Amino acid sequence: MSDAHSHEDIKKHVRTYIVIFIALLVGTGITVGLYFVHFENFAVTVAVALFVATIKASLVAAFFMHLIAEKKAIYAMLSVTVFFFAAMMYLIVWSRGQLPLGSEYGPTKYIPHPTASGGSY
Known about the structure:
- Helices cover 68% and strands 0% of the residues.
- By secondary structure, the protein is an all-alpha fold.
- It has 2 domains: 1-69; 75-121, no CATH class.
- The chain is elongated, with a radius of gyration of 24 Å.
- The termini are far apart.
């Protein structure tokens, strides 16, 4: 009886891994397909790419790393990590529009080098 139960249990796990593998292949296909879609806003592009990547990473973490059967402490740590990751991504996107033109870290205008046109200082 235990051999039959074990065999069915293995079949169930293999079936789950195959379904997750197919879902990851579909997610990769969606990622490649989104490369050819041009959104008007850069923030929308980043948000869509991060959404697809988050779903794929969640599938890997939940099933291949066996986090789906873990205790609440691991989920608490994972949620804290996700919160700080989202906060850092928000700060990066928010700071892109906050830097003044020509600042040390912001976008600069193209100023040709004087020697490129044959002139000098």
